[in-house]
Amino acid sequence: MYVPTWQGLTPTVFFQSGSMTARPFPLSAAHCTYFYRARNAIYHLFRALSLKPDQPVLVPAFHHGNEVRAIRAAGASIRFYPILRNLEPDLEALTKLCRAGARVLFVIHYLGFPQPMKELTALCRQYDMLLIEDCALALFSEADGQPLGSFADYSVYCLYKTLPVPNGGLLVQNHQVLTELSNLELTPCGFLATAGPGLQLMLERLRSRSNGLGETLSALKRSVGRVGSALGVERIPVGDIGFDLSRVNTSMSPWCHRLVQSCDVAGIRERRRSNFLRLRRALAHHATLLCTELEAGVCPLFFPILVPNKRAAAEALWQCGIGAVEFWNEGDSEATGEAFPDTQFLRDHVLELPIHQDVTAEQVDYMADQVRSLKLHL
Ligand SMILES: Cc1ncc(COP(=O)(O)O)c(C=O)c1O
Question: Cα(89)–Cα(109) distance, rounded to whole angstroms?
């Protein structure tokens, strides 16, 4: 069996007409700017905010790294606040940092699970700070019936993490609209740069349904890719680690717009939730779970478990055809080590299992069986 890390594309989506239902937030937001990837959005947002050196941004110590690179590249200074083992901020430490003076609170909703927005919005009000929600991992998730990304002044999304699109990042401006962002001159990425990753998404889907055929076609696609590289077809990676200033003005490709607009939001959320709950039930006494509650409205990105050795566990699961991901092994050098012990714990132990909209109940049960027999308890 093969359970891919990411949701795949089916060719039929190209023949669907746009969804007839109203688009939910953030797709319906009044001020949306679409980028090739979310780090471009973060960079341009911080450029437009033009923060002074004595106006630091408070950023969680538990982060991917690309968002931090984008903030730094835009010239902003950063102070890190601690994240506890339950994936929530240490509110006491964060309050101290707010009191010491900061202009922006940058919040990350991990794996689709909401941060404590009541407390965080109150802090921003009290200390007159801007709030930015990084929803790279939390598209279509809600807290108390309100969409994540709608609490803040600005929010960013990484579309390709939840939807079967080869690229796409979104910046939403909820309150004060920055004219610099309205005047950006963005260049859509070329068709060929999108076609390769698009084909890969289709092959992944095929492979998850028919492993042998999908594997053969994937090998064929890799050969075609090598020919494309030799012919100089430009590719801009997504999901990689790094920040490339020469690519920040690239926007989402036109056919990704079409795919995003026609996606079945309710179906995606429902399938992710039911896969999460099924896996939670199956692993309740056989793995160390990180997020046990699934509140109404949460659209989970992955199913996180805590394992003693991430690399060994991921390799063992890949051997069984399961696209497990080592979640955020490394962060910014200023935010690692003894000063942030809980963050280090999370970096050392969190492993993600796929529960996206393409994963079937049979695949969930297969994953549970493998995790159980590998005895991955922390
Ligand atoms: C929390 C978070 N923010 C921002 C980003 C940037 O996303 P993108 O790959 O679309 O640039 C990522 C991933 O790289 C992320 O995990």
Answer: 11
Strand order, beta sheet including 325-326:
288-289, 302-306, 350-354, 325-326
Task: Output the CA 369–ligand 1 centroid distance in Å.
Answer: 31
Distance 214 CA to ligand 1 centre (A): 28
Which numbered atom of ligand 1 lies nearest the CA of 328?
16
Confidence of residue 370 (pLDDT cuts 50, 70, 90): very high
Nearest CA to ligand 1 atom 4: 67
- Give the N- to C-terminal CA distance of the chain in Å, as an integer: 26
Ligand 1 mean position, distance from CA 331 (Å)? 12
Domains of the chain by residue range: 17-186, 188-247, 265-374
Residue nearest to atom 14 of ligand 1 (CA): 66
**How many angstroms separate the alpha carbon of residue 40 from the centre of ligand 1?**
9
Q: What is the pTM of this model?
A: 0.94
Atom of ligand 1 nearest to the CA of 37: 10
Task: Check if the beta carbon of residue 169 is closer than 8 Å to that of residue 159.
Answer: yes
State the distance from the centre of ligand 1 to the C-alpha of 212, rounded, in angstroms: 32
* pLDDT of the residue at 14: 72
Of the candidates 315, 309, 321, 322, the residue with the CA atom closest to the CA atom of residue 350: 309
Q: Does the fold of domain 265-374 match that of domain 17-186? A: no
SS3 266: helix
17-186 carries CATH number 3.40.50.2300: no
The pLDDT tens digits of the residues spanning 257-309 come to 989 988 999 999 999 999 999 999 999 999 999 988 999 999 999 999 999 99
CATH architecture of 265-374: Alpha-Beta Complex (3.90)
Percent helix / strand / coil, the chain, rounded to 5: 45, 15, 40
